[in-house]
Amino acid sequence: MTFKKWFMAVLLVLLCIGMFSFFAVDFRYGYKPKNEKVMPYVPNKFSGFDLWGKQIASEKSTNLIKTEDKTELSPKNGAVTINHHLLKIGRDTFYEETFGNEVFLTDIMGIIDGPFTIGNIAKAIMALKGEGTTNLRVELADDITIGGKRYKKGEKIDTGIDVVKGTYVPLGMPVTFSKGKIRVGISCAACHATVDQNTKQVIEGAPNNDLNLGLLLALATNSSAYFTHGNIASIKDYLKGTDRSVTTTKGTKEALPDPESLEKAVDETFQKWPRGHFDSSIDLISNPTDIPDSFTLGDHPYGWSGFAAAGSFRGLSAFSNNVHAQNADTLSQSEISKDLFGIDKEVYLGTILQNAANPNFRYNPKSGVKPSKFFQTVDPTPDVPGINQLVAPPQFPKVSLTAPDGLIVSSPGYKFNEQNNGVAAWQNTLQPPKPNMKIERAAIEQGKKVFAKANCITCHAGSTLTNNQVISVKEIGTEPSRAKALKKYGKVMGESLLYSPETPVPLPKKPTVLKVPTEHLNRDQLKLAFALGDSPGGYKVPSLIGLYWTAPYLHDGSVAVGNDIDQEIGVTGTILKGITPDPANSLRALVDKSLRDKVIKANLTSQQLQDLHIKGIGHEYWVDESTGFTKSEQDALIKYLLSLTAIQKK
Fold it and tell me: Which domain holds residue 12?
């Protein structure tokens, strides 16, 4: 072990046992891999400007130039300069930035205050001896029972946390130490980068398809802070008397749910989430999706339903923002909790804070103080809603097409939305590495012909193999619950307004407000994306670039088959058993009716999956004997699909 590696290992151990408090120093570290730690790929390259989703190439050093329609390319008009500086901000943000979510995860949710501890994380990493892993196995510090399942102290759990070879820190989990407390946050890289099983190098943009987020959340001491992502039809179902009442915004008294009963219900739901799945919707229904990849160029609109379509980088900035503004801080939704959940703001805040892990953040309903007043006294970002580093755009508290969460994450010292724009620009440079398998050129060419013959190009067309459309669930036939997750957002939808990209954070007294162009967006498509009105909702047609790295398939990750095509069938036969889905066999199940029927049948045997709306149905576009294709042609199609690692030449 080199001195540098030894020092980092000792540093982490010291951090874990709290010795930094002796020296009274603050500490923050998030791992960002050097080039030699990344699996090689050929990046997409672009320099110039993004003007509300339209990329304009330019080699001029100034952004004060004009487009063909005489529009000045200036931040005052919404133009974002794409250059080395922005891309560096994007990559730094992707790996290291938490926007302060370590406070929510640690102080409120208590993700390392239960049986899953920072000390045992460090112990597990040290045991690797620098070899790296795609699945850090961590000992539990205490016994715990979740949903009738008993976990024992000393038992090792599969976390799916990745550690790069030669390092001693988790990928995508920045650690901080301040005011005598260790905190763990999550950056983009925790979900949207992974470690290759063979080389232990980072695959930038590939989903971490074994990250066991559900179990890690369930092990937290206050998982109920995340109750809007669980199967909680009404928090009134968990009332046990009126001794925990608060004064609502209307001055009436209303009881908070019993924290123990709510915690038990939320934990039971989260424990059911398959590895590699996460529920990013706040509709009080647990319908987790497969973690998506970040091979994003040309894959608009973004999100499984295509809800992120407006603004910079064709909605990619809005999509990047979604993760940190909503999914890492449920407190940020308090101003619209009545519209979205039918829960008064004070009741909502009280429910989240009444069992906070850190006593300083724990709300006591017997204090007689309103939850919102209490929260103001402990909020590290008191000038903005929620607890993360957020900025309220002009339309707040309403949401908009450019801020579906209502808020924009932006750290002090940066420009407004700069980190989201940086991540979007950098993600658009990503292309997947070559597959860990040899595919003959003749098979690829034959498969490409089968792809056309089977009319796959009807939807998966063009250089990025998508027509960029949202398809109604009635047409695509996949499990419908997730397509309706944003339906209530129609109640709080406002005008798309943002501050100029040159606006500093914190905001000045009179920041420049810009109206984001949305007139070009198809209203019927937006109606499907948000399931507005009588729309059943829909799912967007994804790009097929990088399929080798993104198994299992469909939005719910329900089409999964292992290496053993006869035994490892469905999510029940793969992910729930800790078996990684095989991309070739899983793709075969996507296009082969007989094999898909077996996948669906296997999934239906699990009540756990039914509770989570994971089925394997839909997308019934067969390339098999039933539609006149031979086994050889099907094989060639699969090899062609697995070979797609770059934007296709026109």
Answer: 3-39+117-158+160-211
